[in-house]
Design brief:
With about 425 residues, the chain is mostly helical. It is built from 19 helices and 4 strands.
Length: about 425
Amino acid sequence: MERSNDLADQSLFTSRVFWGLTCVAVVLVCSFSNPGFLDYPNHLARFYVMTRDFQSPFFQSIYETNFRLLPNIGVDLLMFGFGRLIEPSIALRLVLGTIVWLQCSGFYKLHLARNGRIISPLVLLLPMTAVSYSFVLGFLNFSLAFGLLPWALVSVMRPRSRKWWLSLFGWSTALFFCHFFAWIIFAYLTLIWLFTQSSSKLRRSEIVTVFCLFFAFVALYKLSPSSTEESKIIWSSLSDKFKFVVATFVFGPFWKPATGLFFLLLSVLGLGRRFGISRDTKILLGATTALFLVCPMGLSIGGNFDARIPAIFFSLLLSLSTVKSSKFEQRVVVGLGCMITLIHLTACGIAMNRSNVEGARARAVLTLLPANSVVSVMSLNTGQSTHRDLWFPNYNMVQFVGVPEKPMHIQGLFSYP
């Protein structure tokens, strides 16, 4: 009885500290002079173009409306709502704070859904993780999508019913319009969750329904061409029916290792049944596989997603952690974490010897210790000309908006003509 009370008191104390750190993280991100988002000025510019100065020759010479790129409009929708009520620059700061709160609280709720109470003080690292990883190196739509992802997973971890299917469709739609890559991970984790449930067997109709839903979203994305070279390649590949079917089934239309990772995922599930690995470990292994699908091998040097692989992995790890895991499972999880971190640090070390932007990204990622994360973020965001040159090398900061010095594509509702 006394042990139960001690655990309850510890859980309550941890919860209070967690929400306090979350508030600090929100204030820090909202108060930075230059938030470390690569596309921060672009979202502000798109809001002005859409609502106020769309007829201005100054903006018309740079931006044009592009509604074809559907899976990248989540932040634009938030700005359209907040920006009409208050000053747009303040509204965008509120959007930043909302993203931080969604990520921290979402992973907290996911931890509760898996364990029933706070059993690991390690969840206190989540606010620091949100500030140091995803938000220094991230893009707004990407960060918003991964703020919604844990909430979507919480809704999936419930008994299946009619409301469950409506919730699945709703969260799939929300993640799809925020960022396609987050939706890919949600699709994988949902399938893993369904296949690893031991309480009740899946009916064939349920499996077919889930696959049809995910197939429809992939097809919708493929049928939405944009002006980027990547989408042009995908659009042209539709003529090859075999490639289209393969890419659709593995939910990875951009990357060559997708097929191999899909079979790796199936083998993990098969080994789990053979050796009695618990459902938690299967989900965690599947999540890791999905993360490597987003960024092939986690080693895309200088790419957009290499720096966020450790952040998402450790957030999922801390959220899904449970005291019921065996020693073998704990060793597997720790080994995976060490392997990913070691490979990632090696990749960052290589990138530091490259161009200015890649070197800046690598130096920021090397602050893996949570104790150094806030300090590193503050130092990066309080710089003036140096900070601007590192994170916005192609932008000239003019008043409230970043104006490109040379044409380059801006993903979202607007792109360059």
